[in-house]
Amino acid sequence: MLECVVNISEGRDEVALERLAVACSGSLLDLHFDGYHNRSVFTLCGDGVEEGARQLSLAASRLLDLRRHHGVHPRLGVVDVVPFVPLFGAAIEEAVAARDRFAAWIAAELSVPAFLYGREMSLPEVRRTAFRGLSPAFGPDHPNPRLGAACVGARPLLVALNFVVAGDLDAARAVSRRLRSPAIRTLTFDVGGRSQVSMNLVEPERVGPAEAYELAAGLIEIEEVELVGLVPASSLSGRSARVLEQMGIDRTRTIEYRVAELEVG
For the whole prediction, is pTM greater than 0.85? Predict the structure, then answer.
């Protein structure tokens, strides 16, 4: 089984988001959106995951225009990031094959240049070098005027967290630098005049949400916690129940719980 976590450059228009959710409803596990980032994250899974990602992308291409997009999060396109993730014993090669099929499809169907990431190159590297020395693997060598470009990946599970912290942006940047490690990728944002440390936990079985919270709380006061999408159950197992409760994360936010709900439904 594969998961696909599609990042769309729209997080404010709830009518548009509802229409996008309907487009992929048969495979939708979770929808998260944020107005300051102006970004939404659709977590898809199941037998129809590739078709769900395609239908979501088609709907986004009809509804959205990157030229009218404003938000604090970096982006290359309307259908900005499309990682395929192996679940429950699936091999990374299955995710790579799905990645390559989707990248070829979006280039042919929507004339959107597609950059690949995974074993070959990380997503941050693609963002830094796309169209500046790095050519797309599929599609034209320039951004689509309305839809931009897509970063299509094959990667292991990760956990995305946002912490709104006390202090100004310089203080948040200092915390972000101290947290950054092979297991934690970080960015810092101003979200409505408040400071946010945004992180990807790329080794969540080793450094999960509870560990990230405790690390950050040892450096600065955390005012709000936001989980973006879902977590693997293994990243919660054996962790501090008190810390997870403080963060508002329980078993209903796990991939396993939502997959079981999808299968029952």
Answer: yes
